[in-house]
């Protein structure tokens, strides 16, 4: 089902690339809201010049400077939001409650896609035995820990020192997670160290970084050729605005107000193209849907709000071919 939906979105993507009208509104999905509507939707949130991408901001501009070809992914405003709530990572009723509730479903997608890709037995208790997995933007370790329990050799990195401290303390309390290597750093820092991983995973982070394309280039560079890249994020649709911002932040108070900026959400089509430019070819996508009656999340082919993508890092000969195609689409993603 998820694959069918993904193929459908790929088909609509190729249609959009062929039609100049659709290029201006690249997502033919009725849930899609053009970026030109953003000002009309913004009165719900307080305006801050610092969050206005058109305002000159020396801290942010310095953070996006290019170092050794890989631009910094740090958005100081976003990083500060997470530093402010770092103590609450493992509070089951705190602001990260939605991530805790979603986690078994996220792990189930990662387990099935990685087992298929790396030819592992999904029914084995430790199917990731020996796989080197990087969790970028690991926060307090909500994902890193189950990955370690599944046998992976996990490295968790995060831009916020407090998150890393919390993650280390929590993992140390259980022998099955105490081997996780947590460090406060960014993906581009690791690229500079020339590190490589069998799988690079970054869940719910891309919507908080400075430049999604540069961030994905770093993720791609960290995966071995033929390795896996998994990203989850929120689609930039009207439904996502209503549920993840209006409902979750303003009505239900699940998340602190201002946690998400709708304009930073990424559509599945954009993510596919961005990853393609990072030499990662998306193979599979699935949506996460929430059932308010049971409080559970499940996998679905509905990718209109929360979704996850699995891709494969191309070999150098593959990426040469892809780059030529992706370069023609530069205007669409930038
Ligand atoms: C919504 S949380 C997701 C945490 C974790 N990935 C999960 O899903 O359980 C986003 C995390 O990304 C981190 N982060 C934000 N920008 C980052 C960057 N440029 N590099 C690394 N981590 C970053 C934040 O500190 C925060 O811990």
Could you explain how this protein is built, in words?
The protein starts with a helix and ends with a helix. A hairpin with a 4-residue loop joins strand 8 and strand 9. The C terminus is likely disordered. It has 334 residues and is an alpha/beta fold. Helix content is 41%, strand content 19%. It binds S-adenosylmethionine. S-adenosylmethionine (SAM) binds next to helix 5. One of its GO terms (cellular component) is extrinsic component of mitochondrial inner membrane. Pathway: Cofactor biosynthesis; ubiquinone biosynthesis.
Brief account:
The chain has 334 residues and is an alpha/beta fold. Helix content is 41%, strand content 19%.
Key structural traits:
334 residues, alpha/beta, Rossmann fold, eight-stranded mixed beta sheet, two-stranded antiparallel ribbon, 14 helices, 19% strand, disordered C terminus, binds S-adenosylmethionine
Radius of gyration, Cα only, in angstroms?
19 Å
Taking strands numbered 1, 2, ... along the chain, how are they ordered across the largest sheet? Answer: 5-4-3-6-7-10-8-9
**Termini separation (Å)?**
30 Å
The helix content is 40-55%
Mean of residue pLDDT? 81
Ligand types: S-adenosylmethionine
Question: CATH homologous superfamily name?
Answer: Vaccinia Virus protein VP39
CATH class identity? Alpha Beta
List low-pLDDT spans. Answer: 9-65, 322-334
The fraction of residues assigned to DSSP E strands is: 15-25%
Largest sheet: 8 strands, mixed
Structural class: alpha/beta
Helix segment tally: 14
What is the tally of beta strands? 10
């Amino acid at each position: 089902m998820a694959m069918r939906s993904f193929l459908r979105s790929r088909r609509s993507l190729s249609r959009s690339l062929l039609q100049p009208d659709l290029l201006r509104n690249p997502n033919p999905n009725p849930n899609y809201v053009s970026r030109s509507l953003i000002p009309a939707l913004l009165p719900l949130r307080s305006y801050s010049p610092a969050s206005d991408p058109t305002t000159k901001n020396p801290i942010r501009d310095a953070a996006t400077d290019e170092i050794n070809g890989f631009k910094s992914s740090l958005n100081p405003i976003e990083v500060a939001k997470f530093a402010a709530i770092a103590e609450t990572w493992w509070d089951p009723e705190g602001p990260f409650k939605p991530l805790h509730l979603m986690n078994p479903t996220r792990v189930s997608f990662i387990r099935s896609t990685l087992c298929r890709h790396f030819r592992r037995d999904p029914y084995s208790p430790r199917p990731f035995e020996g796989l080197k997995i990087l969790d970028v933007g690991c926060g307090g370790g909500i994902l890193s820990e189950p990955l370690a329990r599944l046998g992976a050799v996990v490295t968790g990195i995060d831009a916020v020192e407090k998150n890393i401290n919390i993650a280390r303390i929590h993992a140390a309390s259980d022998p099955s997670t105490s081997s996780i290597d947590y460090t406060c750093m960014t993906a581009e820092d690791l690229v500079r160290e020339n590190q490589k991983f069998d799988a690079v995973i970054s869940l719910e982070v891309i919507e908080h970084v400075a430049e999604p394309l540069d961030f994905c280039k770093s993720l791609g560079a960290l995966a071995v050729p033929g390795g896996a890249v998994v990203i989850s994020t929120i689609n930039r649709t009207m439904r996502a605005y209503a549920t993840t911002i209006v409902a979750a932040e303003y009505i239900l108070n699940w998340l602190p107000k201002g946690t998400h900026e709708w304009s930073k959400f990424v559509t599945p089509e954009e993510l596919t193209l961005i990853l393609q430019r990072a030499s990662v070819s998306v193979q599979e996508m699935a949506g996460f849907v929430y059932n308010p009656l049971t409080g559970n999340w499940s996998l679905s082919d509905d990718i209109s709000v929360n979704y996850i993508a699995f891709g494969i890092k191309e070999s150098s000969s593959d990426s040469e071919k892809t780059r030529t195609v992706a370069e023609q689409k530069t205007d669409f993603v930038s």
